Amino acid sequence: MSSSSLPLHPLTSYGWDDAWADEFTRFDSExxxxxxxxxxxxxxxxxxxxxxxxxxxxxxxxxxxxxRVVCTGDWVAVEPAGNPRYVRAYLPRRTAFVxxxxxxxxxxxxxxxxxxxxxVAVSLAVELDLGRVERFLALAWExxxxxxxxxxxxxxxxxxxxxxxxxxxxxxxxxxxxVLPVSAASGEGLDVLGAxxxxxxxxxxxxxxxxxxxxxxxxxxxxxxxxxxxxxxDGKGRHTTTTRNLLALPGGGVLIDTPGLRGVGLWDAGTxxxxxxxxxxxxxxxxxxxxxxxxxxxxxxxxxxxxSGSLPERRLESYRKLIRENQRIVAKTDARLRAEIRKDxxxxxxxxxxxxxxxxxxx
Length: 363
Prior knowledge:
With about 375 residues, the protein is α/β, with parallel strands linked by helices. The chain has helices at about 20-30, 130-145, 160-175, 190-195, 210-220, 270-275, 280-285, 300-310, 315-335, 335-360, and strands at about 35-40, 45-50, 50-55, 75-80, 85-90, 95-100, 110-115, 115-125, 145-150, 180, 200-205, 245-250, 255.
């Protein structure tokens, strides 16, 4: 029998492949079942297996490190029976979307694992916040997945020229990222988006009110996710999705829908920030000093581009802001970097005091 005529594995539609099968061989002798986590809730998770969806306890894989807890999208080894039934381990993650928590403990929070695409939903019903788009994209690139920006509620922008200008604004903010205007109401752009997402696992992210649940229902072809209208006054929504849910798409691929995110803090996303601002990183390669901060240094190619008008001020300020934020986050967990930053602060402070003394001497 040829390999093409062999029956597909029951988990193929959820992303199971030969590489995952190879990773799982070490658990075969223990009689454990492979499965994918489709939902996590308070120490329990739902796992889809060849035997159906099982409820399992995660007590055996709940370490102190919040980035190593079981997450939606994980492939796990689960006990075939038991009351309670336990997840015994999860397979090494290929990719993961991580943000910093809103707590003061400076912890990372993993939102989705083993993803191929990060869809950032941006509502056209409210004014575009390009800085927020850049923030989402920095984390998306850092995850190891391919970002996609979806401009939802495109039907609320009746003028094609206006829609074109808005799309172009986002495209300039998102180099190397597909930007797709979509309307769940009219169906515009859904076929293109569905084709893009059919080849892997996608996590759907965005603020409350961005239309994520409506978009998820449109892609799924049925009303699976609860939907509430956004407030007319500011376009903000209420959290209708309260957990991260993994669902197989009818046209192929897997979708992880998430609750709306009010805060999107960076978490060790230096590489991602560099990819979002690829044009600034390219300019920085021509700066006179390799550690140029692009503030007031002589021979700074980035400042030269800004002064010539080829680099917009908003773009430069956003880059500086995200770089500073990421350095602060990393410094909280990296003693060496904290020392380097303190040393830099002292150097700049000394330079500032020297400059003030020089000015006083001239007065």
